[in-house]
Amino acid sequence: MKRTFLQIALSLALLGCQKGQVKKPIILNPQSEIVVNQDSLLFEVEGVNWTAWVNTPVQVIYPQLTRINNQITLRINPSEGVIEGQAFLTLQRDENQFIYPISLKNQEAKGQLQDLRSPKTVNTDSSMIQQQVLYAFDHSGNLSELEEGVFFKENYLELFPNAGTFQGLTSTAVSSFYVDPGTVKEIPLTYSLNKYNQTVEIKAGPLKDRYNNSVSNGTLAIFFLEKGKEQKRIETVVQDSYCQLTMPLSEVENGSLKVKIAQVYSLSLIIQQP
Amino acid sequence: MTRWIFLGFLLIVGVLLVSMARVQKKNDEIPYFLRYDSLAANANPRIELKVESSIDPSEEQLEKLVTDYAAIWAHLNRLFQDPDPKPSKERLTERFYLHLANNYVDGPSSSIKRKDLSHFIQIKTWSKDGLSCNILDQNAEFSFEFPDGTIQKTNYSIAVSLLFQGDNWRLDAIRFIEEKN
Asked: pLDDT tens digits for A27-64?
């Protein structure tokens, strides 16, 4: 009798130590889609110390949880919205977890278009065709449709041959592209005498490409000077559509001069005193 | 007297050096090129690939894309469980990383595990410079392992936009288009 009493007492003590099975929370406002930062989910629960998290398609986040009596309100309010799609909400109390599949959506927000150009720099000597890749996304990084069922677009654009820096459809730095001037079309060559200093100023320019864009600053120009049996080669660079050179008159008088830029030569010029 | 002034000066210098050393932050971050990405190394989903873009990427470029795509999903699967985006910084563009970083709140890891089993990707656009790629993952198969041991397999079609930055492809934007069951 004593032994049976002890066994019963022990069984009761063991049962008392065991944590009770927690009843699954009942969702009071089931929704097919939850708009974050807007909708709330209500659950009827038993007991306290509930915690919750949401596995969004990309990142686990923690909803705001408020409890009044036996009802908890869950509000999913990430500061940057979420990647939309199927998610799992987990409610936990002690060791018990209850999982609810949910569908998440962001509040309507203005999307942003991405306009990527390739190649970024086009030279007027080469093809003026440029590839344009378009896609759009919302403030959380969800791709948005450009047309129904279309997320990406690709166009081939023929650019105007005007040199400069331009911005694509989105007017953002990422969409910027550049048209570089091409090779000089012709090299006009002139000179002027400075009688006081007895020098000659030789000037090549204005240097333009075939679309009338000024040749890039820093383009190499080579002056070839031939006087009698003496030949000289002098290198300089284009600056503001011109390249120039000042030489002592004695070194160039009656000499022949020409300039080369890339594969283009100027006409030869004989330098003479007037 | 001079000796005491000199010792006092040495003491001040010593205190100053010690306090400067304490203020200096220790930078434990290993440079990117020395880091071992164990998630990427262990990612081995089946990836089928079809090129539909007007520009044909080279074999080498496709190989790199497949490796990096698997690595991106390995990191997204980790983020599905653990909210800290920092270990996945190199697999996301700055803009996408910022979204996750701004949403990040330290908390317990989730008990649901996700694994990508296979992908069927169609390359829709490939930029001439090889720095942008847009793909449709027509059949991404995932398995979800729940804490009670049950496993659920789900297939999605997903649109993904990638940019090649630094040494690898990075996720710039994503859309889970539909769930296929």
From this structure: 999 888 999 999 999 999 988 889 999 999 999 999 99
User: Please, where are the H alpha helices in B33-152?
Assistant: 38-42, 59-81, 94-103
Asked if pLDDT for residue A17 goes beyond 60, the answer is no
Which CATH number does the domain B38-180 belong to among 3.40.47.10, 3.10.20.90, 2.130.10.10, 3.10.450.540? 3.10.450.540
Has residue A15 got a pLDDT over 60? no
C-alpha–C-alpha distance, residues A104 and B111, integer Å: 19
**Backbone angles phi and psi of A269, in degrees to 5:** -125, 130
Nearest to A80 among B103, B114, B175 (CB): B103
Is B110 within 8 Å of A55 when comparing Cβ atoms? Answer: yes
**CA–CA distance, B102 with A80 (Å, rounded to integer):** 6
User: Between chain A and chain B, how many beta carbons pairs sit less than 8 Å apart?
Assistant: 132
Q: What is the pLDDT of residue A7?
A: 55
Instruction: Write down the mean pLDDT value for chain A.
Output: 89
Task: Please name the member of B110, B129, B174 whose beta carbon is closest to the beta carbon of A141.
Answer: B174
Q: Do A60 and B131 touch (CB under 8 A)?
A: no
> B128 and A135 in contact by Cβ < 8 A?
no
- The pTM score is 0.83
* pLDDT recorded at residue A6: 47
User: Complex ipTM above 0.95?
Assistant: no
Beta strand A121-123 with A177-180: parallel, antiparallel or unpaired? parallel
The confidence score (pLDDT) of residue B21 equals 78
A265 in contact with B at a CB cutoff of 8 Å?
no
Establish if A10 belongs to a structural domain: no
User: Tokens standing for B13?
Assistant: 């210098």
Q: Which of B82, B156, B174 sits opposite A60 (nearest CB)?
A: B82
Cβ of residue B128 closer than 8 Å to a chain A Cβ: yes
